[in-house]
Write a structure and sequence with these properties.
alpha+beta, Pnp Oxidase, Chain A, globular, single chain, 181 residues, 8 strands, eight-stranded antiparallel β-sheet
Amino acid sequence: MGKAQALIDEPVKQFIEKQTMFFVATAPLDPNGMVNLSPKGLDSIRILAPDTIAYLDLTGSGVETIAHVKENGRLVIMFCAFEGPPKILRLHGRGRVVEANDPEFASLIGHFNPIEGMRAIIVMKIQRVADSCGWAVPVLKFEKDRQQLVAWANQKGPDGLKQYRAEKNAASLDGLPGLAW
């Protein structure tokens, strides 16, 4: 059976560091708004402290996570053990968005290997760490990271990414503000 705790301890840290994929869930305050769930990968998450985690937010077709976190801060990050013993781990907390033009971005980016197309860093202050059995999660074998997003961002270049973000990442599906720059 699952257990809950307030901080990331060493066994949880080791579990997180072994995962090649995680999921991020957010929702707007509007009860008629759309809930968002996004898969993430590419070695983009870091544990900054036992109560703080951060991940690189990469340019994509939408900006739901950024818009929801800016609006209300609610965030859940979930990891599933697709290899090895079954386990699901959820981190509940309050997030904040650090965009590339924010002075704090320069100090945070040092925790990561920069990835072409990064547009922000999402930082979450953890309120709850909870695991559960994961018995129904399939066993899958990791082969490799996909490189299409990085190649696409490289092909776009800085100016192309700026234009794309202005067109596609200025507002969420529900009209909430997205990227500020």
